[in-house]
Amino acid sequence: MAASPTFDIQEITRRMQGAIGSFKHELGTLRTGRASPNLLDPIIVEAYGQTMHVNQVATVSVPEPRLLSVQVWDRGMVQAVEKAIRDSSLGLNPQTEGQVIRLRIPELTQDRRKDMVKVAHKYAEGARVAVRHVRRDGLDILKTKEKDHTMSEDDHARNADQVQKETDKHIAEIDQLLVHKEKEIMTV
Questions:
Q1: What is the rounded distance in angstroms from the CA atom of residue 120 to the CA atom of residue 100?
Q2: Sorted alphabetically, which Pfam families does this protein's record hold (predicted)?
């Protein structure tokens, strides 16, 4: 008979934190009114016969609040990076000067802001679902251990309560991050 899986609240917490880290990264790619180097993270460039993220072929910086500067390392890659930015759904118009691509961040319209808030809500729901999956995995381990008689009912209840507290804490953190991002997006 296979050994039952071990229950580790730190592992469950770590996995929930991973879901939040992923959510924070997704929020960072949403354009507010200000320039952010994370804005270009989702852009993929055809480079050297394979696909790479922009930050693997260039340095992205923010010289001004409404301007991104992309310093492409290899002169031969400038046009590929420019094309990838132009073809992305970000609606940015690259202006190239040698190996530097400048991107002016246009003002967001009210409709575009509302669309971005909807996307942020979708990302938040995805993060909540990921946290709930981790909770379910933890509770399944506890049920298995109780069924195998390697854990008492009291220990099962105590640990299940601990898992639920971690879940509630992480979902509250997701909600807090969403409120902050929504406010940031809607600020004109």
A1: 31
A2: RRF (PF01765)
Rg (CA), the chain: 22
Closest CA to 57 of 21, 24, 97, 99: 99
Structural domains of the chain sorted by starting position, each given as residue range(s) with its CATH number in brackets: 9-27+109-186 (1.10.132.20), 34-104 (3.30.1360.40)
**What DSSP designation does 88 have?**
S
For 7, phi then psi, to 5°, come to -95, 125
- For residue range 116-171, list pLDDT tens digits in order: 888 899 999 999 999 999 999 999 999 999 999 898 999 999 999 999 999 999 99
Strand partners, 122: none
> 91-100: per-residue pLDDT in tens?
788 999 999 9
Instruction: For residue 152, report the phi and psi dihedrals to the nearest 5 degrees.
Output: -75, 165
Burial class (CB in 10 A: 0-12, 13-18, 19+), 77: buried
Secondary element (H or E) of residue 59: strand 58-64
Q: Are the C-beta atoms of residues 71 and 58 closer than 8 Å to each other?
A: yes
